[in-house]
Amino acid sequence: MEVYKFGGASVKNAEAVKNFLNVLKLQAKSPNVVVVSAMDKTTNALEAVVNCYFIDRKSVKSLLQDVRKFHSTILIDLFEDDKHPIYHIIGSFFEGASRFLDTNKSNNYNFVYDQIVGVGELASTSIISHFLNDHGIENEWLDARELIKTDDVYRSASLNLNETQNNINRAINLGKIYITQGFIGSDSNNFTTTLGREGSDYSAAIFGYCINASAVTVWKDVPGILNADPKVFDKAQLIPQMSYNEAIEQAYYGATVIHPKTLQPLYQKEIPLFVKSFQNPNEPGTAILKDKNMADHICCYMILEHQTLITLSTLDFSYIMEKQFIKIAGLLDSYHMKVRLTQNSAISLSVCFSDPFNYKERLLQDLRANYKLTIQENVKLYTITNPKTDHPPFISSITGILMKQFTEKRLQFVTTA
């Protein structure tokens, strides 16, 4: 059994959906589960709907209608018969979202976000499922919210693995093809939850784990995992193979090809992960396997933007000791900060982190009660694995370094720009 995952770029318009069909037809063996993201920039557009709901409700209907029109245009290009049931299905998703926004009483941004943004995945997978059925690839559409069960930490839900495993095992049969959504699940009250932005890769890994897949393949608009962002580094090279450990480190420190949570469930069962191009499906891509390290000569460059660097010191000039470490770490965790780099001296602690849920001001207010703070906003974290002495120009020209750490396998530094 195999799992495929296709991102939003692979289904961004009608032509892309037709290419999606061709990619499946070119495979020697059909996958059992196909996980699909929302189309193109749909998630961004639905995020704008949610933001507008909390800021300027007069524009909400118009923004939501724009997203619906985008999908309607794709439907017209793919389904000539305007009486095709897919038209009603897509309409019902957007009408349901509109009703929710009309009747919702919650002022919890994260809750509202999850109820609205998941519509993108529901719409894209429904279109894909019907299009494939109409063109000779028989499949069954599954609602991932009925399978993937989580807690109620909206926008960053944690998996209930036992319940999810049981649900997936009951729903999926060998020999059939299933189309389902990435990114979304549901809590114990059946409210929609999301697994974190760009979490569809993680969804594919969950399905792979639960069905004991022989492999998971993630189809991207790049040839595989590269050693640097080609938009920044014009000589980026393909990494043919790498270990789980290397891949998770790449993802954690800013390589955007794979979601950071993806590797953990696959590692547990040693399920290979392949990253391939949907534009060139016959190319080998990157294989992520147990104990298959990348070649030592490949130096990798990752950049995380929009980070915050804080330096804390005690108000009474005393040492920063273990108790303070525990307390500070607890506060960072309670506000869902993503800590990327730390460094300490006898009387100070520096922490570089991102703030995915906009809780930073509340965190800083709590820290100021016990510590003196120095704050640097909007910094960048550079991570270089297998560092060499002759770095490319975009690294050599960097100035404004605020913090730096160096080991045999990794060089990291935080900069002002």
Notes on the structure:
The radius of gyration is 23 Å and the shape is globular. The chain is built from 13 helices and 16 strands. It has helices spanning 14-26, 42-55, 60-78, 85-103, 109-117, 119-134, 161-171, 200-210, 244-252, 263-269, 322-334, 360-368, 393-396, and strands at 2-6, 33-36, 140-141, 178-181, 184-186, 192-194, 215-220, 241-243, 273-277, 286-289, 300-314, 338-344, 348-354, 371-385, 401-406, 410-415. Helix 2 (42-55) packs antiparallel against helix 5 (109-117), helix 3 packs antiparallel against helix 4 and helix 4 (85-103) packs antiparallel against helix 6 (119-134). The chain is α/β, with parallel strands linked by helices. The strands form three sheets. The protein has an eight-stranded mixed beta sheet.
What labels would you give this structure?
six-stranded antiparallel sheet, eight-stranded mixed sheet, single chain, globular, 13 helices, VC0802-like, alpha/beta, Carbamate kinase, 417 residues, 2 domains
Following the backbone from N to C, one meets helices and strands in this order, namely EHEHHHHHEHEEEHEEHHEEEHEEHEHEE
Mean pLDDT: 93
- Order of strands, main sheet, comes to 3-4-2-1-7-9-10-8
Give the uncertain stretches in residue-range form: none
End-to-end CA span = 46 Å
